[in-house]
Amino acid sequence: MEERARRGKVGTGAMAAAEQAEREVARLGTGAGRDVNGGAEAAEFGAFPEAGRPTGRPTGRPTGRADVVIVGGGPAGVVLAFLLARQGVEVVLLEAQGDFDRDFRGDTIHPAIMELMDRLGLADRLLELEHEKVPEVRYLRPGDERPFVVADLARLKTRFPYLVLMLQSRFIGFLLEEAKRYPNLDVRMRSRVQGLVEEDGAVRGVRYRSPEGVREVWAKLVVGADGRFSKVRQLAGIELRELSAGTDVLYFNVPRRAEDAAGAVVDIHFGPRNSLALIDRGTYWQAGVSIPKGTYQRAKATGVGPIKEFVGGAVPWLADRLDGALGGWKDLTLLSVKIGRAERWHRPGLLLIGDAAHVMSPSGGVGINLAVQDAIAAANLLTEPLRSGDGPTDRDLAKVQRRRSWQAALVQGQQIAAEGDIARAFEAGEPYKAPPFLKALTRLPVLGALPAWVTAYGVWPERLKRSLVGPRPVRRPARGV
Ligand SMILES: Cc1cc2nc3c(=O)[nH]c(=O)nc-3n(C[C@H](O)[C@H](O)[C@H](O)COP(=O)(O)OP(=O)(O)OC[C@H]3O[C@@H](n4cnc5c(N)ncnc54)[C@H](O)[C@@H]3O)c2cc1C
Questions:
Q1: Which of 11, 26, 320, 445 is most enclosed, with most CB atoms within 10 A?
Q2: How far apart are alpha carbons 206 and 196 in whole angstroms?
């Protein structure tokens, strides 16, 4: 918390050059430029000769066995770990970081996720944690009399007609606290996967580095839920098809005051050259200012003046804090927005879900919803093969991809179209205007709820199978070291 307060005071303080700007990449250490099968990682492994190369045959000395090893404690990995553990599947969850407090992630819990929580009997307890409920997503343009409500969730017939805004770390912490009652779930923090264990063309486990050294877990299935820079995807040799995102985002932090407007967080402010979204990080606001892709150097040459002017004009109650928060370009972090999709989400013994399978742009705030729905689909299709026998076949894994990939493709198509329109408006120096058909649609009596429905549920929401709703007795704990 102290660390957060410090960051909230005057911004993150440290991004000078565009090339370095993906701070997250640097932080995770999984980014471009690292040689997957050699280079830095081979050198690291050199200190542990028994571990061999990052990807290779089993050493014969596993330090853990499980039915499934899930790599990545984001929304996709944690929800899948939780759903499988409740069914008595032995799960090892490996998370590279020491906690779940993430910069540059969404904090939205959509109605589809709340309905899953409700089905599991957890919704009421989850809502006892600090959160805000936001019933509308709005677009604001200078000079408009009223904001355009693009998604009015209050129109939906659900117990949860709103977005829940809750720190992602709080949501994930809640699930893991609940999961403590399942001794067959073994969560290992500070455990960064660096290699796959393979035999006869199939993935049999992972090798990871933890404070205790290099470890190896063997399992019937490895799930890569390790986000957009997925190491598991790289190690498996699965290509990511990059699709064209239209914008990049510059972030900076502004201190939060007790009297600040709650719920301002899902308003999108459009100006002639930028848009602004505010993310509530508890003790500070994370302000994300969009710029057309490829214009970073131009924006940098112009300096922070126009950004301050735009943000202060769009959100006047922030204006008096901007000089302190955005003193210069060093206070900004560039997040290079990516959209991409793995052509194949699986190999024998391995499955990708969430951003590892389909990298989402932050636009529309739908990535967490899709990631969680992947986890539900995987639980529906794979619980039985994991509980009994040798684990899922490649055909079982292909079913998960078949079920989920077209939905990710549709949502990404919509993100690309919207970002393209927004970037073109910026280039023309005009605040983006929602297309007339969308405005007309939202005025219709029943169909008008469609944008809200899509925001809440995506394209084809996954529903946890009835047989997986109640927990099953635990067979035995996951066998860790
Ligand atoms: C700036 C920004 C804002 C966003 N805002 C929203 C929003 O408001 N709403 C929304 O729905 N979506 C939003 N998104 C998208 C959303 O964050 C992602 O789609 C979502 O987090 C994907 O979940 P995931 O579980 O697949 O991956 P992630 O959340 O990325 O989790 C991956 C996890 O894997 C861990 N990991 C990585 N490598 C390894 C390794 N080698 N070994 C072990 N662990 C590893 C990471 O530490 C991380 O915890 C936003 C994205 C960005 C970039």
A1: 11
A2: 4
Phi, psi of 65 (to 5 degrees): -135, 150
Ligand 1 midpoint to CA 368 (Å): 8
User: What number does CATH give the domain 49-131+167-243+339-424+460-468?
Assistant: 3.50.50.60
Please classify residue 427 by burial: count the beta carbons closer than 10 Å to its beta carbon, then call 0-12 exposed, 13-18 middle and 19+ buried: exposed
pLDDT at 34 over 60: no
C-alpha span between 231 and 31 (Å, rounded): 9
The pTM assigned to this predicted structure is 0.86
What are the DSSP calls for 340-359, one per residue? EEES--EETTEEE-GGGTEE
Helix H or strand E segment including 46 = helix 39-46
Q: What is the CA(224)–ligand 1 centre distance, in A?
A: 12
Residues with CB under 6 A from ligand 1: 28, 30, 71-77, 94-97, 104-106, 108, 192-193, 225-227, 231, 335, 354-356, 360, 362, 365-369, 371
User: What pLDDT is recorded for position 423?
Assistant: 86
**Region class of 213: left (phi > 0), else alpha (psi between -120 and 50), else beta:** left
State the Cα torsion 421-425-431-434 to the nearest 10°: -20
The pLDDT of residue 113 is above 90: yes
For the chain, what is the mean pLDDT? 84
